[in-house]
Design brief:
It contains six helices and seven strands; from the N terminus they run E-H-H-H-E-H-E-E-E-H-E-E-H. The protein is of the alpha/beta class.
Length: 175
Protein backbone atom coordinates (compact mmCIF):
# COMPACT_ATOMS: atom_id res chain seq x y z
CA UNK A 1 0.00 0.00 0.00
CA UNK A 2 1.41 3.36 -1.05
CA UNK A 3 1.62 5.98 1.69
CA UNK A 4 0.35 9.51 1.07
CA UNK A 5 2.75 12.32 1.90
CA UNK A 6 0.96 15.33 3.38
CA UNK A 7 1.94 18.89 4.31
CA UNK A 8 2.10 17.83 7.94
CA UNK A 9 4.64 15.10 7.15
CA UNK A 10 6.84 17.41 5.07
CA UNK A 11 6.89 20.12 7.74
CA UNK A 12 7.52 17.47 10.42
CA UNK A 13 10.43 16.13 8.39
CA UNK A 14 12.04 19.58 8.35
CA UNK A 15 11.84 19.60 12.16
CA UNK A 16 12.56 15.95 12.95
CA UNK A 17 12.85 13.08 10.43
CA UNK A 18 11.81 10.57 13.10
CA UNK A 19 8.56 12.44 13.75
CA UNK A 20 7.79 12.39 10.02
CA UNK A 21 8.55 8.68 9.87
CA UNK A 22 6.20 7.98 12.78
CA UNK A 23 3.44 10.09 11.23
CA UNK A 24 3.81 8.32 7.92
CA UNK A 25 4.40 4.73 8.98
CA UNK A 26 2.42 4.19 12.19
CA UNK A 27 -1.27 4.45 12.96
CA UNK A 28 -0.71 5.38 16.59
CA UNK A 29 -1.17 9.07 17.34
CA UNK A 30 -0.28 10.71 20.59
CA UNK A 31 -2.16 13.64 22.05
CA UNK A 32 -1.50 17.01 20.53
CA UNK A 33 0.27 19.57 22.72
CA UNK A 34 -2.06 22.25 24.11
CA UNK A 35 -0.20 25.03 22.27
CA UNK A 36 -0.68 23.22 18.95
CA UNK A 37 -4.39 22.81 19.73
CA UNK A 38 -4.66 26.57 20.31
CA UNK A 39 -2.87 27.32 17.01
CA UNK A 40 -5.18 24.93 15.14
CA UNK A 41 -8.27 26.53 16.65
CA UNK A 42 -6.98 30.00 15.69
CA UNK A 43 -6.23 28.73 12.18
CA UNK A 44 -9.77 27.42 11.77
CA UNK A 45 -11.28 30.69 13.03
CA UNK A 46 -9.03 32.78 10.77
CA UNK A 47 -9.81 30.55 7.78
CA UNK A 48 -13.57 30.90 8.34
CA UNK A 49 -13.22 34.71 8.51
CA UNK A 50 -11.03 34.76 5.39
CA UNK A 51 -13.50 32.64 3.38
CA UNK A 52 -16.42 34.78 4.58
CA UNK A 53 -14.56 37.91 3.40
CA UNK A 54 -13.88 36.25 0.03
CA UNK A 55 -17.56 35.42 -0.38
CA UNK A 56 -18.61 38.98 0.52
CA UNK A 57 -16.14 40.47 -1.97
CA UNK A 58 -16.81 38.05 -4.83
CA UNK A 59 -19.83 36.13 -6.06
CA UNK A 60 -17.74 33.50 -7.91
CA UNK A 61 -16.48 31.61 -4.84
CA UNK A 62 -17.14 27.87 -4.84
CA UNK A 63 -16.16 24.89 -2.72
CA UNK A 64 -13.32 22.85 -4.16
CA UNK A 65 -14.07 19.82 -6.30
CA UNK A 66 -12.44 18.44 -9.43
CA UNK A 67 -15.42 19.62 -11.49
CA UNK A 68 -15.17 23.13 -10.03
CA UNK A 69 -11.40 23.12 -10.59
CA UNK A 70 -12.01 22.63 -14.31
CA UNK A 71 -14.98 25.02 -14.24
CA UNK A 72 -13.08 28.31 -14.61
CA UNK A 73 -14.22 29.76 -11.26
CA UNK A 74 -12.50 32.80 -9.79
CA UNK A 75 -11.93 31.26 -6.36
CA UNK A 76 -12.19 27.76 -4.87
CA UNK A 77 -12.16 27.29 -1.09
CA UNK A 78 -11.32 24.41 1.27
CA UNK A 79 -9.28 22.57 -1.34
CA UNK A 80 -7.74 19.16 -0.75
CA UNK A 81 -5.28 18.64 -3.58
CA UNK A 82 -4.13 15.12 -4.41
CA UNK A 83 -1.60 13.95 -6.99
CA UNK A 84 0.95 11.15 -7.30
CA UNK A 85 0.92 10.09 -3.64
CA UNK A 86 0.86 13.66 -2.29
CA UNK A 87 -1.99 15.40 -0.51
CA UNK A 88 -2.19 19.03 0.58
CA UNK A 89 -4.90 21.16 2.16
CA UNK A 90 -5.35 24.71 1.01
CA UNK A 91 -7.74 27.42 2.23
CA UNK A 92 -8.27 28.88 -1.23
CA UNK A 93 -7.21 28.65 -4.84
CA UNK A 94 -7.34 31.93 -6.74
CA UNK A 95 -7.60 32.05 -10.54
CA UNK A 96 -4.86 33.84 -12.46
CA UNK A 97 -4.42 34.42 -16.19
CA UNK A 98 -1.72 31.95 -17.17
CA UNK A 99 -2.05 28.82 -19.26
CA UNK A 100 -2.35 25.43 -17.59
CA UNK A 101 -3.87 22.02 -18.24
CA UNK A 102 -7.26 23.68 -17.67
CA UNK A 103 -6.90 26.21 -20.49
CA UNK A 104 -6.21 29.94 -20.35
CA UNK A 105 -6.13 30.09 -16.57
CA UNK A 106 -4.45 28.47 -13.59
CA UNK A 107 -4.64 28.82 -9.82
CA UNK A 108 -2.45 30.12 -7.01
CA UNK A 109 -2.72 28.72 -3.47
CA UNK A 110 -3.57 30.47 -0.21
CA UNK A 111 -2.94 28.83 3.15
CA UNK A 112 -4.07 30.05 6.56
CA UNK A 113 -1.97 29.72 9.72
CA UNK A 114 -2.97 30.10 13.34
CA UNK A 115 0.07 32.13 14.34
CA UNK A 116 0.62 35.88 14.49
CA UNK A 117 3.91 35.60 12.59
CA UNK A 118 4.84 33.77 9.40
CA UNK A 119 7.59 31.22 10.03
CA UNK A 120 9.83 28.98 7.93
CA UNK A 121 7.46 26.04 8.46
CA UNK A 122 4.55 28.03 7.00
CA UNK A 123 6.57 28.89 3.90
CA UNK A 124 7.56 25.24 3.51
CA UNK A 125 3.90 24.23 3.78
CA UNK A 126 3.01 26.76 1.07
CA UNK A 127 5.82 25.42 -1.15
CA UNK A 128 4.47 21.89 -0.70
CA UNK A 129 0.90 22.96 -1.49
CA UNK A 130 2.15 24.73 -4.62
CA UNK A 131 4.11 21.61 -5.61
CA UNK A 132 0.98 19.43 -5.40
CA UNK A 133 -1.03 22.10 -7.25
CA UNK A 134 1.65 22.10 -9.96
CA UNK A 135 1.12 18.34 -10.39
CA UNK A 136 -2.65 18.84 -10.68
CA UNK A 137 -2.70 21.78 -13.12
CA UNK A 138 0.61 21.05 -14.91
CA UNK A 139 1.74 24.62 -14.27
CA UNK A 140 3.85 25.93 -11.40
CA UNK A 141 2.15 28.77 -9.53
CA UNK A 142 4.27 31.91 -9.60
CA UNK A 143 3.20 32.99 -6.14
CA UNK A 144 1.18 31.88 -3.15
CA UNK A 145 -0.43 33.60 -0.21
CA UNK A 146 -0.24 33.13 3.54
CA UNK A 147 -2.94 34.50 5.84
CA UNK A 148 -2.10 34.74 9.53
CA UNK A 149 -4.03 35.87 12.59
CA UNK A 150 -4.46 39.65 12.46
CA UNK A 151 -1.87 39.91 9.67
CA UNK A 152 -2.24 41.38 6.21
CA UNK A 153 -2.20 38.87 3.35
CA UNK A 154 1.43 37.97 2.59
CA UNK A 155 2.44 37.08 -0.94
CA UNK A 156 5.27 34.57 -1.29
CA UNK A 157 7.07 34.18 -4.64
CA UNK A 158 7.23 30.50 -5.59
CA UNK A 159 9.62 30.72 -8.53
CA UNK A 160 12.01 28.13 -7.08
CA UNK A 161 9.23 25.62 -6.47
CA UNK A 162 9.18 22.89 -3.83
CA UNK A 163 12.70 22.12 -2.59
CA UNK A 164 13.60 18.91 -4.41
CA UNK A 165 15.83 17.80 -1.56
CA UNK A 166 12.68 17.22 0.51
CA UNK A 167 11.09 15.38 -2.37
CA UNK A 168 14.01 12.93 -2.42
CA UNK A 169 14.50 12.66 1.34
CA UNK A 170 10.85 12.07 2.20
CA UNK A 171 10.88 9.02 -0.07
CA UNK A 172 13.98 7.69 1.74
CA UNK A 173 11.97 6.53 4.73
CA UNK A 174 9.06 5.00 2.83
CA UNK A 175 8.79 1.26 3.48
Amino acid sequence: MKKTITSEIVVSYSQCPRKAYLLLCTKERGTQHEYMQILEKQRQTTQRKYIDELREANADVHSYSLDNLKGNHKCLVNAILEADGYSAKCAALTKVRTHSAFGHYSYEPTIVVGAHTIKKEHRLELFFVSYVLEQVQEKRPLSGHIVGCNLPLQVQPLVMGFPHIFQEKVHDFLP
